[in-house]
Design goal:
With about 280 residues, the protein is an alpha/beta fold. The chain has a single domain, classed as Rossmann fold, CATH 3.40.50. The chain is built from 6 helices and 9 strands, in the order αββββαββαβαβαβα. It starts with 5 loop residues before the first helix and ends in a 10-residue tail after the last helix.
Length: about 280
């Protein structure tokens, strides 16, 4: 029996979610390490474990609960992914990107990517939120490698504006309104799972990175391929190696992200209602 194509797999996953939830989301939010509690504020909530969804699998990293949550968030039909799959876990890029392709296949016009990241910019401090202006793909791979999926997008998608300037302005204005200071900068996506050496951090700073992490970039690439606009927010959960006075641990990331989750929730509550007008040419799937 022939194996299903990626497009067929996406349709299978979309069908399951649509059968479980009557909400037709306009916005998708992927919640990074320790940030999953943001979805607690959803009304008319439907929770679907990843393991119930065709071609998904469970999460293995602490701080990623592995559930889809659909409902209304401040009146906005929204789908949240509580956790993600990482390249460093050994999954191929196709599987890392599959949840993103699934939520985009539900017809969302905007994808908000969040993560916990290490601060490389020496002016950043632990606890900051950074709005992502651009990224560096330093993972050594690309989720669009291989035969192009013409049903999903073009062979050579443009990434001149990988992170929507319109979304960036909306989040920046919302942050000012609620009194949450935000930074702006470039996110470097790395393979992991080791944290960076001080020498590597100096190199990444020289390349123009302001924060480093182990996710987000593949998701941004496939969303752009699908014609979905992208916003990105990093919670600076710690300073990167050589800038931090202590050794880095995942527990520190999780502990600090509890504070970040509250800031992120407040920012999303203000900004998401301003994102719901469907942009011209946005995804119609």
């Amino acid at each position: 029996m022939p194996q299903p194509t990626v497009y067929q797999k996406i349709r299978d996953a979309v069908e399951l979610i649509r059968n479980r939830s009557e909400v037709r989301p306009e916005i998708a939010v992927i919640l990074g390490s320790g940030l999953g509690s943001v979805a607690d504020q959803v009304s008319q909530k439907v929770v679907i474990p990843y393991t119930d969804i065709p071609h998904f699998h469970g999460t293995t990293v602490e701080g990623h609960s592995g559930c889809v949550v659909t409902g209304n968030f401040r009146g906005v039909p929204t789908i949240f992914l509580q956790g993600r799959f990482h390249f460093y876990e050994g999954y191929p890029m196709e599987e890392v990107a599959f949840p993103t392709r699934t939520v985009c296949g539900l017809g969302v016009h905007t994808l908000v990517l969040t993560n916990a990241a290490g601060g490389v910019n020496s002016s950043f401090k632990s606890g900051d939120l950074m709005l992502i202006e651009d990224h560096l793909n330093l993972m050594g791979d690309n989720p669009l490698k291989g035969p192009n999926l013409a049903e999903l997008g073009p062979r050579f998608p443009d990434l001149t504006e990988a992170y929507s300037k319109e979304c960036l302005a909306i989040f920046e204005n919302a942050a000012k309104e609620i009194g949450v200071p935000v930074q702006k900068g470039v996110y470097a996506g790395l393979l992991g799972p080791t944290y960076e050496t001080p020498a590597e951090v100096r190199m990444y700073r020289g390349l123009g990175a302001d924060a480093v992490g182990m996710s987000t970039v593949p998701e941004a690439i496939v969303a752009n391929h699908l014609g979905v606009r992208v916003a990105g927010i990093s919670y600076i959960s710690n300073l990167a190696a050589g800038l931090s006075p202590t050794k880095l641990t995942h527990q520190e990331v999780l502990d600090n992200s509890k504070v970040g989750a509250d800031k992120l929730r407040r920012l999303l509550e203000t900004a998401l209602p301003r994102l719901i007008q469907r942009p011209q040419g946005a995804n119609k799937r």
